[in-house]
Specification:
Number of helices of chain A: 4
CATH class of the largest domain in chain A: Mainly Beta
Largest sheet of chain A: 11 strands, mixed
Strand content of chain A: 25-35%
Oligomer: homotrimer
Largest interface: B-C, 39 and 42 residues
Shape of chain A: flat
CATH architecture of the largest domain in chain A: 3 Solenoid
Distance between the termini of chain A: 78 Å
Structural class of chain A: alpha/beta
CATH topology of the largest domain in chain A: UDP N-Acetylglucosamine Acyltransferase, domain 1
Chain lengths: ~325, ~325, ~325
């Protein structure tokens, strides 16, 4: 889409020469042919070094962006970006493209749907009711159980099991808001990458990244009804028990263990070999190799002490009152 | 069904003239042709003003009901009502009725099921494995992702997205109990109404109302694995992050935000523009425009203070003990 | 499989005569033709009385096992067992076996899959998109809603309802680990048994047992998005509200009530008629007939007292500081 058309849709001015924009991307990932945005001065550094061909940004920040970059001016760059993201969304169901390539010795049950330009590695089993979108890659020796859904562009490694009802690659839960409180969907153009030897439980959901990939590294095991939001990265050999929920852009190290119903806010890091006990709620980055519990989160032994002290304090209080 | 037959099924007496009952309803919604019930004296006011043609109620309450109303006497009106609700349940799969009406420019993939008397608005996409029951209405420009299920009689507005595996209109979780501890299903005859511009995440579930409708108002965005119970009403432009759970008959205002894994008991009101932080547990009605956290729920700043004070108290305690 | 071959796969020595092993089983369930394992001295008693034909165990424990039992020596018996469990997994999709037997008056919608040697009782309804594996038994008057998945070998009683998207019989979340932190799947050969008059909510998941059965007893009602892990046993007429999660081998009595988002660690017992309030987290066995709340769990009245005392303590503290 021509930049002039984008500016026109947004009713915005642009500074620089008109050019064709092929896709949208993050400040630090965008290329010559891509449009990005900068919402706040927090990102000044990333802005100064961006390779994006065009940017949406506030008037005040015009001078901070690279000179050869075309600028679209908006008081609400994130909202403008959300509005324009819709126009760059790929079609939901490709009408063109090649028939899927199914390697030898696969078992594809009736009533499985496999989209265009999709590849399935040898010895894999795709069961009834599975939906696999376009341009998906599934490795060798995988089992995709019934009624699982894999959205367009996702990649699954070798020897993976996706249990019934799992949903891989749904849109990230991201919206921009206008001053009236209305929400505008950010169309997520990234995908989900699941590496080798990963198992994902029944009815768990892993959302696609805004750009780039939500990543589940090799050997990680995920139980039922787990939610992994857009742009998370889970290190190798981690364990996520049932009903765990990770917010967007959580970066989890290797061999991390989450007990059942634990959770995490987004945009934080969890160190290698950390263990978060059942129900633990992580609200800031934590170092690895330790056991944590509670919400607010404490080291597990502190959490135990705290609860025994609360119990004692209350008993003493009771005596004093008697 | 004739009232005499209903009384017969229940082994109960009835006072008044026999008449045909067409459906069941709540005390304040019931009409001439409908049967309702009154379980407790808490509802005396609603009982006195009911327009129901017939009622199930305890002997003691006979005099409180309108005179022209036919009365079935039961020591356990709610249980009697549950037992009889089964007989008024509509068939699960209509054999009669018209073929669905699909407006122009829709994309209906193979292996989607669309029931009798169902209407789908123009430009909508229904993907593989979707089940849409009877008498459902879906608006224009909707996307119903793979393996989603929409039960009978539900209504979806324009420009809605229902992500893979979502279940709309499942039976509310309501039972009456007898003295032996056995549970009797209350058949839910209501539906779910989803207004325009609503997005619902993968594997989320929204249950149908007992009577009338569970309502999701326009512009509201719901993340993955969220549970909304029967008879809830969610105001416009609200945001429910992943794994939130709302109990039956929760009334949520407009632009309310629920963080991940938050929850609410039923039969309460949450004011406009309230924010409930992740994991917050709402156990009584709360006013709008504020930020809440914790369980028991506090205003967010109080919750933060409380936790810093607990930490300090415990440190002091430790010193005293040293 | 011959024991010599098993030892060969594991690169392990064995003591005793070679024999054919037909399946794997727990120490106390194993028969002459079965292989079991013993990981720790905690299980010495079960080891001494096992009827297993062969065992995987540590050198140190060789003398504790019955004499006529063939022994495979491993420093990591559980890991060895996990590795070998893969070889005993039944095929995912039977190619042999008889066509399913559907009793009179059933309604089987198009696009339902029903596996080999499966039986469905009279008057049952199987809706579109349902997947029913091999050797499954479903009773009379059941409704299996759309897009539900029932894995191989599970048994469902009479008058059960399984709402849309429910997953019955997925693999238990069990792995052995090696010293490098890699996880090895324990293939679960058990099943799920659901007795009469059970209702299971939309998108809930019930995992199969490692051996024997995960059991949901008669009359129990389970809401949406509930997780019941492998080898749990839920007593009759219990109630599990939405988003409850039970860890493996939890034994729940009769008429137990779990409020929404409550949970339990595994390998504990919950007494008859216990009530766990919403969000309650059970971390040890609890006696029946009481109401519990909180995490750590307390009796409900203690939990209420505790929170009112914490509130008071903090107010006093504030005064003292002023």
């Amino acid at each position: 889409m021509l930049l002039s058309k984008i500016a026109n849709i947004l009713g915005a001015e642009f500074f620089g020469e008109d050019r064709e924009i092929l896709s949208l991307n993050a400040l630090d990932l965008a290329k010559e042919s891509e449009l990005s945005f900068c919402e706040s001065e927090k990102h000044t550094k990333r802005l100064q070094s961006t390779k994006a061909g065009a940017l949406i940004l506030d008037k005040n920040m015009l001078d901070l962006a690279p000179k050869d970059c075309v600028k679209i001016v908006s008081k609400t760059p994130y909202l403008s970006f959300a509005i324009i993201s819709k126009y760059f969304a790929k079609p939901l169901i490709s009408k063109e493209g090649k028939d899927p390539i199914i390697a030898e010795n696969c078992q594809i049950m009736e009533r499985a749907y496999i989209g265009k330009d999709t590849k399935i590695g040898k010895n894999s089993t795709i069961m009834s009711g599975v939906y696999i979108g376009d341009r998906v890659e599934i490795g060798e020796d995988c089992v995709i159980y019934p009624n699982t859904t894999i959205y367009n562009d996702c990649k699954i490694g070798n020897r993976c099991s996706l249990h019934a009802g799992a949903v891989i690659g749904g849109d990230g839960f991201g919206y921009a808001h206008d001053s009236s409180g209305r929400h505008y969907k950010i169309y997520h153009s990234g995908n989900v990458v699941i590496e080798d030897d990963v198992e994902i439980g029944a009815n768990s959901t892993i959302d696609r990244a805004l750009f780039a990939s939500t990543i589940i590294k090799e050997g990680t095991k995920i139980d039922n009804l787990v939610m992994i939001a857009h742009n998370c990265e889970i290190g190798q050999n981690s364990i996520l028990a049932a009903q765990v929920g990770l917010s967007g852009s959580t970066v989890v190290g290797r061999n991390v263990v989450f007990g059942g119903q634990a959770g995490s806010v987004g945009h934080i890091k969890i160190g290698d070999f950390a263990t978060i006990a059942a129900r633990g709620g992580v609200s800031k980055s934590i170092s690895g190799g330790k056991v944590y519990a509670g919400f607010p989160l404490l080291e597990h032994r502190e959490w135990l002490k705290m609860h025994s002290k609360i119990a004692r304090l209350i008993k003493q209080k009771q005596k004093q009152e008697v």
